[in-house]
Design a protein that fits this description.
This protein is mostly beta strands. It has no helices and 38 strands.
Length: 465
């Protein structure tokens, strides 16, 4: 029997007669992909579904506070989960590179089935590192590591392939923060075997300004949303454009840079403004935006989620959902994100993932239950669904009664019948100190859970083990 992924919802055991108050409940059978790992949200893809070999492949970086302690501190790791056998394999790509979630790799599956991986230390003066697996579907054997160094520290790598680019020969792009701390471009014409520095995507002038960019692709275009700076330093707005055949366009399709493969980057303000700092939602002024996630609807329209501070308060962040309607960006408040993960980064929130195969579905991490605005003790994951382009949302809990935080959800691209939701679970002290598991659920699940028939088919809640 196959289950409609839209039926994914939580049902607490406490609702049933005679049951005690449950703890650490999850709407599905929890999978641990890696028992020590974290990721940052400005590098992608963090996970992919390899349908040819029936695996989910996940990247992360380990920390001494987690399982394995010092022996795994700063290890750059890749893990595979076999959807048939449920076996997990973990492989270390680099030993002790850096205990920092910014060092987490990006992964791309080549057309020959092998994996290309890109990673760097946080502001790595050695440049960006690239490596390709030896065999399709195998994470345990890799070729030699190559470097691309543009003369500037590298952070945040994002690989996307456009098969029609390069006169139809295909081009793999890697977008990286490097020269001048701007989003820069590396290119590969052989799907990651060799790389060269391409140019600069956008710039905000001096190196004290650091645009924060998020990317996604539907295979025809690479969409980017970007701010002017870090929200602690500037009252950010959000802008959107896309890359196609080496050129940069605004949302409406007008060329703003005919060649992104040169050293000249246009200002972020040349792109289409998605959100203007100071915009009011329901009488509340929103400030200091930060990009969170992007996706592309089935009709090719870009969709984005970003976060803002309500009335410039760092204890009252909000998530905003935006859709391009062909002529303008339509924005709606999605949910309350609450405060911050820790004091030094007072704009780090639990974050949001848009389902890339259904942009009407999102997964958020927050301490404020979107069903009733009650406050929870830890960050929980909720699923939201809209039928009116984001104007209103129906919510259900994916985690509930947790004894630790559930943060930074992601949904790798799969298909309309299957969804993998992954997140980080545990203690996140700082981006260089964390004790986290990389966990998730799969719908339909690889093993039978048994169903509770109360008001329709719903997944039974499972207590974490």
């Amino acid at each position: 029997m196959r289950f409609n992924k839209k039926m994914l919802c939580f049902f607490a055991p406490a609702l049933f007669a005679g049951s005690a108050q449950a703890v650490d409940d999850v709407a599905g059978d929890l999978i641990t992909f890696n028992d020590n790992g974290a990721w940052v949200w400005f590098t992608d893809e963090r996970a992919i579904v390899d349908t040819a070999t029936n695996q989910i492949i996940v990247t992360s970086v380990a920390d001494q506070s987690g399982t394995g302690g010092l022996s795994r501190n700063g290890d750059i790791e890749i893990a595979s989960y076999n959807l048939g056998t449920e076996a997990v394999i973990r492989h270390t790509l680099a030993n002790g590179l850096e205990a920092n979630d910014h060092a987490q790799p990006a992964i791309y599956q080549r057309t020959d089935g092998r994996y290309a991986v890109a990673y760097s230390r946080h502001n790595d003066t050695s440049g960006s590192r690239f490596v390709v697996s030896t065999n399709p579907g195998d994470i345990t054997s890799w070729g030699s590591v190559s470097f691309v160094n543009s003369g500037s520290p590298a952070t945040y790598l994002n690989m996307y392939y456009l098969p029609a680019d390069n006169n139809g020969a295909g081009r793999l792009y890697n977008f990286v923060r490097s020269e001048n701390f701007d989003p820069n471009v590396h290119v590969s014409n052989d799907e990651g075997t060799t790389w060269s520095y391409g140019g600069k995507l956008v710039t905000e002038g001096g190196s004290s300004q650091r645009p924060y960019a998020r990317y996604t692709s539907d295979g025809e275009k690479i969409h980017v949303t970007v701010t002017e700076h870090h929200p602690r330093n500037l009252q950010n707005s959000v802008y959107h454009g896309y890359v196609q055949d080496g050129a940069l366009y605004n949302s409406a399709g007008s060329v703003v840079d005919a060649n992104v493969l040169d050293g000249i980057g246009v200002s972020t303000t040349n792109l289409t403004q998605v959100f203007a700092n100071g915009t009011s939602f329901g009488g509340t002024t929103m400030n200091r935006a930060w990009t969170v996630d992007n996706a592309v609807a089935s009709n090719g329209a870009p969709v984005t989620v970003f976060q803002v501070r309500a009335n410039d308060s760092d204890t009252d962040h909000r998530f905003i959902y935006g859709r391009w309607d062909g002529s303008s960006w339509q924005l709606n408040e999605l949910a309350k994100a609450g405060g911050f993960l820790y004091n030094e980064e007072n704009d780090y929130t639990g974050l949001v993932a848009i389902d890339p195969n259904d942009v009407n579905t999102v997964f958020i991490s927050t301490k404020i239950d979107p069903r009733d605005d009650s406050t929870t003790g830890f960050y929980e994951i909720y699923q939201g669904q809209t039928t009116d382009d984001g104007a209103s949302w129906d919510w259900s809990a994916i985690t509930e009664n947790s004894t630790m935080d559930n943060i930074r959800p992601i949904v790798p691209e799969w298909d309309e019948d299957n969804t993998a939701l992954l997140w980080l679970r545990g203690d996140y002290t700082t981006f260089v100190d964390y004790d986290l598991d990389v966990v998730g659920i799969v719908v339909p699940e690889p093993t039978s859970l048994g169903l509770l028939g109360l008001g329709g088919l719903i997944f039974a809640s499972r207590r974490l083990r």
